[in-house]
Write a structure and sequence with these properties.
- This protein is mainly alpha-helical.
- The chain has 4 domains: about 120 residues, Rossmann fold; about 100 residues, Glutamyl-tRNA Synthetase, domain 3; about 50 residues, Helicase, Ruva Protein, domain 3, CATH 1.10.8; about 90 residues, Arc Repressor Mutant, subunit A (Orthogonal Bundle), CATH 1.10.10.350.
- A 3-stranded parallel β-sheet has the order 1-2-3, with helices on one face. A 3-stranded antiparallel β-sheet has the order 4-5-8. It has a two-stranded antiparallel sheet with strand order 6-7.
- Helix 15 runs antiparallel to helix 16, helix 15 packs antiparallel against helix 19 and helix 16 packs across helix 18.
- The longest helix has 16 residues.
- The radius of gyration is 32 Å and the shape is elongated.
């Protein structure tokens, strides 16, 4: 059997990390099993679905590398197919027209609630042998309902939750199509999963209540349902369900904030799945290890500090050229163009950074004017160090411009003025790159370039440095 999975988002808002995890696991399962991964856009909610939301879904999946083999299919383009299947169900006696108005249905539910009964459709228009149905109202447009079995239970073995059994008496006759002919969610899902040959439905646990209804539809259509895998909820840092209303960010915002796609995949994979105690792994390892048996049963809580740590590990492991391209994009957003130095700048600072935004902050010091804080200047650039800075500028104006020669010039100035490295290096760093703490001084000066270094050393704030 070829494994066929799907991701079926509704384009009614931006897609956040909790949503995209429901794409990651079916994608990973299909890839790890040599199967097929399908993207389906469930856009039957015409009033709330937008093309902008579709674009965000596609952009987020493209950024994370969650490539699909088929699709995107759009439910809004399959209306004729749903009509055909509805007619098939009606001909087989599995569906029937219901003329109960919304007002009547609301009144029924109020009476049931007052009687402390579960609000549900009571089967008024369900045809049964010997039953006399109410007269069809003039001009009434019916909804079409499914004839749910009255007795027995629905049972399935969930790959995460284990055996689930629900009595049919708990289910009412769900609506398959509204009075305007629009098909409903549960109906469309079953028709799509059937037509697309889905073997494993991997989705959030909020769909558990839909599953018995969908299983009934599969059986009514003469098909075996797929295997179901209901994933535990992703919680935000406050312990609430991750959602737009609870402050969740769009997936693509993490890209803007300097996170790496592989790091986000790594972190998301651990939000509900594990491979021993491994926290940091690459995409190829994830696909090699991934299986449904190691999915967690408890809700997973998002932790942005942990995400930043994972991102830092991936950033440190990246090659200089690849990392430089990402940082170049960050610089371009700020109106700055990187040059051939950028890969070496990235290599110099990547161990100190946890996002490409932080790395771009460092790179900016090499491409734009810098200004140290008044506190940094007052602390490190005192009048007593001015002679040594002038001597260093003289040496640097004459030496070869490479790390070895720059380091030798610094040592000569230290010896000539009887200084320790920190006494000279910190004021130089403050003047040249605006901060007292950087990697190796000779490497920083070489990358800044002779002209800028000399200009920044000699254009010292007079108030702090005049003897």
């Amino acid at each position: 059997m070829t494994i066929r999975t799907r991701f079926a988002p509704s384009p009614t808002g931006f897609i956040h990390l909790g949503n995209i995890r429901s794409a990651l696991y079916p994608w990973a399962f299909a890839r790890s099993q040599g199967g097929v991964f399908i993207l389906r856009i469930e856009d039957t909610d015409v009033q709330r679905s937008t093309q902008e939301a579709v674009d965000v879904i596609l952009d987020g999946m493209r950024w994370l590398g969650l490539d699909y083999d088929e699709g995107p299919y759009y439910q809004s383009q399959r209306t004729q197919r749903y009509r055909e299947v509805l007619a098939q169900l009606c001909d087989a006696g599995h569906a029937y027209p219901c003329y109960m108005s919304q007002e009547e249905l609301d009144a029924l539910r109020e009476r049931q609630s007052a009687a402390k009964c579960k609000p549900r459709y009571d089967g008024t228009w369900r045809p049964e042998p010997g039953k006399v149905l109410p007269p069809v109202p003039d001009g009434g447009q019916p909804v079409w309902r499914f004839r749910t079995p009255l007795d027995g239970t629905v049972v399935w073995e969930d790959k995460v939750k284990g055996r689930i059994e629900i009595a049919n008496a708990e289910l009412d006759d769900m609506v398959l199509a509204r009075s305007d002919g629009t098909p409903t969610y549960n109906f469309c899902v079953v028709v799509d999963d059937m037509d697309m040959g889905i073997t494993h439905v991997i989705r959030g646990e909020d769909h558990v209540n839909n599953t018995p209804r969908q299983i009934h539809l599969f059986h009514a259509l003469g098909k075996e349902p797929p295997e179901y895998v209901h994933l535990p909820t992703v919680l935000n840092e406050q312990g609430d369900k991750m959602s737009k209303r609870n402050g969740a960010k769009a997936v693509t915002q993490y890209r803007e904030e300097g996170y790496l796609a592989d790091a986000v995949v790594n972190y998301l994979a651990r939000l509900g799945w594990s491979h021993g105690n491994d926290e940091f792994f690459h995409r190829a390892q994830f696909l090699q290890w991934f299986g449904l048996d190691n999915l967690g049963k408890s809700p997973a809580q998002f932790d942005e500090a942990k995400l930043r740590w994972v991102n830092a590990q991936h950033l440190k492991a990246m090659g200089d050229e690849a990392l430089a391209e990402l940082v170049r994009s960050q610089l371009e957003r700020r109106g700055v163009e990187g040059d051939e130095r950028l890969p070496r700048i990235c290599a110099l600072f990547q161990d100190r950074c946890d996002t490409t935004v932080a790395l771009a902050d460092w790179a900016m010091r090499f491409y734009t004017e810098v200004s140290a804080s008044a506190q940094e200047l007052a602390t490190h650039c005192t009048p007593s160090i001015a002679p040594a800075l002038e001597t260093l500028a003289q040496h640097l104006s004459q030496c070869a411009w490479d790390r070895t020669a720059i380091a030798a010039a610094v040592r000569e100035v230290l010896a000539q003025h009887g200084l320790k490295m920190s006494q000279l290096a910190m004021p130089v760093r403050v003047l040249v790159v605006g901060t007292a703490h950087t990697p190796s001084l000779d490497a920083v000066l070489e990358l800044v370039g002779r002209e800028k270094v000399l200009a920044r050393l000699r254009n010292r704030p007079q108030l702090a440095l005049e003897c």
